[in-house]
Amino acid sequence: MKGRHTQWMWLGPLVLLAVAIPAAASPLEEPEITGKMAGLLDGQEREWFIVSQGADSNATFTETGDHVQIDLVGFTEPDDWRVRDSLSLSITLVEGEVVEFDVLHPIGATVMPPVFTSDDASVRLTLHTFDVEGSKAHVAGRVEGILALQTALGEEAIEGEGIGISVEFGAEASRIEY
Fold it and tell me: Three-state SS for 107?
């Protein structure tokens, strides 16, 4: 399955994350690792931590009827939620099947390009597990292929300048209810 979406789809989870970071900086609770992404990125072994702190989580899901939106964001350090070098997965399920997904790896200090993205790229996402129990869901799977380089907002991502990805992920996601 190709992860091709509008160029703005991946901004939603990261904008929410940017707003949540100051709130998550509370010294009252230590960050808790609730998941991990690990594997190869551009041929190098990498690991990202999915963290929650208090009511804020970097692994969330929402349900609207048969439609489920899962957002996972991993950071290279569990106590340092910097956008640079993070890895973000956004997965849409309809009737339990993956119908859309987005992968984003920012290489700058913000969520704006330059980024490596699944837009206009050859990336496959396999969801092995999505089990909901109460307000939590166990999410696990794999993403692999080539992420395309997008150098500026509004420009097409270029797969020929991309990087390889082969990453397993697993996390406990928190339900968001509106």
Answer: coil
The answer to whether the CB of 83 falls within 8 A of the CB of 18 is yes
Paired residues of 116 in beta bridges: 105, 149
Distance in angstroms (rounded) separating the CA atoms of residues 7 and 157:
9
Q: How far is CA 58 from CA 24, 120, 133, in A?
A: 10, 25, 18
Residues recorded for the chain: 178
Residues 56-84 have pLDDT tens digits of 899 999 999 999 999 999 999 988 888 98
N-terminal to C-terminal alpha carbon distance within the chain: 30
Which of helix, strand or coil describes residue 55?
A: coil
pTM (predicted TM-score):
0.83
